[in-house]
Amino acid sequence: MFDEYPRPQMARGQWWNLCGPWEYAFTDTDAAPSRWDGTIQVPFSPEAPLSGVGRSLGPEQWLWYRRQADFSDAPGRVLLHFGAVDQRARVWVNGVETGGHVGGYTPFSMDITDALDGGRRGEILVAVRDETDLSGLARGKQKTKRGGIWYTPQSGIWQPVWAEAVPENHIRALRITPDLDGGCVRIDGEPAGATVHFQGNDYPCPAVVPVPDFEPWSPENPKLYPFSVTLGDDRVESYFAMRRFSVENGRLCLNGRPYFHNGVLDQGYHPQGLYTWPSDQAMVDDILLAKSLGFNTLRKHVKVEPLRWYYHCDRLGMLVWQDMPNGGGKYRPDVIQFPVLAAGFRMEDDRYARFGREDAAGREQFLTELDEMIGALYNCPCIALWVPFNEGWGQFDAAQVRRHIQQLDPTRTVDHASGWHDQGGGQTKSLHVYFRPYRYRPDEEGRAVLLTEFGGYNLRVEGHTFNDRDFGYNRCKDPAQFLEKLRKLYAEQIAPAKAGGLSAAIYTQLTDVEDELNGFVTYDRAVVKLPPEEVRKIIAV
């Protein structure tokens, strides 16, 4: 299960896959369990069918995991890695607390060497709390009481767990920044003193590595360049791509030229695994489906995927808009729903109570998790744009957050307030339009105009639905009607808008998700509702 190395841009030779059966227990206190409830298949959450558990973690409960691990053939140090654990985690090895993490979407690691016994073996114990929407932590589309656009919550370990052997002095991080205009790539490493190996040449790190006669990366030509880095006895394999994202003359540009981001919303839910993909191939299949439909962009909606998902976008050629998962308190309808019908309505987002953000510690935690997400994904060539806030869900100080992101990563564009509650400034103007025709208007500030959600046409396919609910924005009775409505939508609204200056169009959505039946493919991925060749013709505006 999950035999592929989890971190493709910093891969080592000796590693241990710790996915598979673990013991688990639910408790009502923070005391370690005296007995175990059974076996769970990690990294599937207990709520996911593939976990083998079929039980939800309550907000007042603890979820415990335990397994034995043998690192007797490991030289040097042993690092333990968690792809993501929702939401609060503590970790012990042989009874020694070795680390922990707050936040359900970002990876964390720890050195467990000193806690292992003399035979380099250890009992790994993990305790998890998950309050879902009852705390201010990032939660995305999870809701304690699911329904409509809010989905079944999941908890605990939901991305791969793994370990690797490293020497005492080892590479801890890489930062890869392509310079298209300079014909080179800058590679920074932590700690200093490493050596970069590229095309038969060695460069001391931090290195500015020339890339002669390079091929620019694009969805049409996803050229990747492999390289390696060594530090003493430590060696990691990695890759980069030569590409540049910018906004010029009010247009999104790729490699210095206007490039229309013709995309689809992608939420990454699966009925058998919820947040967790059933397999590596399942990730590939969804990306290839989007490409077969003619899309060049996926907006990864309020979820952070495993690193292998981004690797597949890198190698297959798919632009990614990366949302930050939303958090905060309870959302008010006048903030998150009224703007759907009231075009141009906006609020100042320093009104923290109205946006569910009155808790100062919660705002700080959001920024911490945002920084972790950007740090974890910075090197991925596919990511073109960061989206910190969507439709006012837990939004606060979006203009300041935009500036913060641009300082962290000046190489990408930021959509600071997707949909509404635009706070002005920056390089983009973002709109969601569902219940009225869209007509392009240039932004008064000269920013690139992005249609970041639209469409949402739903078609029910009997035998391939989550339940008897039928949520969507424009119902279709059969595939023929769906196809005709889609053709009219792109011909009458998107094509004229693109000709007028629109920079991006993100259709809702790639797959059905629970109550939502507005995907191009059913939730179980069994039925593609429209012929891909016909969709390609329609969206090629």
Description:
The protein is α/β, with parallel strands linked by helices and 541 residues long. The chain folds into three domains: 15-166, Galactose-binding domain-like (Jelly Rolls, Sandwich), CATH 2.60.120.260; 173-242, Immunoglobulin-like (Sandwich), CATH 2.60.40; 246-539, Glycosidases (TIM Barrel), CATH 3.20.20. Helix content is 17%, strand content 30%. It is built from eight helices and 32 strands. The strands form eight sheets. It has an eight-stranded parallel beta sheet, with helices on one face. Strands 3-2-4-10-7-8 form a six-stranded antiparallel beta sheet, with no helix packed on it. β15 and β16 (201-204) form a beta hairpin. α7 packs parallel to α8. The two termini are 41 Å apart.
Output the CATH homologous superfamily of the largest domain. Glycosidases
Distance between the termini: 41 Å
The CATH first-level class of the largest domain comes to: Alpha Beta
The average pLDDT value, as a whole number, equals 96
Compact summary:
This protein has 541 residues and is α/β, with parallel strands linked by helices.
Describe the protein's topology:
Layout: E1 15-17, E2 20-27, E3 38-42, E4 62-70, E5 77-82, E6 85-86, E7 88-93, E8 96-102, E9 108-111, E10 121-129, E11 156-157, E12 161-166, E13 173-179, E14 184-190, E15 195-198, E16 201-204, E17 207-210, E18 225-231, E19 234-240, E20 245-248, E21 251-254, E22 257-258, E23 261-266, H1 280-292, E24 297-300, H2 307-316, E25 319-323, H3 333-336, H4 338-341, H5 360-377, E26 383-387, H6 398-408, E27 413-414, E28 428-433, E29 448-455, E30 457-458, E31 474-475, H7 479-500, E32 504-508, H8 532-539
Parallel strand pairs: 23-24, 23-32, 24-25, 25-26, 26-27, 28-29, 29-32, 30-31
Antiparallel strand pairs: 1-12, 2-3, 2-4, 4-10, 5-9, 5-12, 6-11, 7-8, 7-10, 13-14, 14-17, 15-16, 15-18, 18-19, 20-21, 21-22
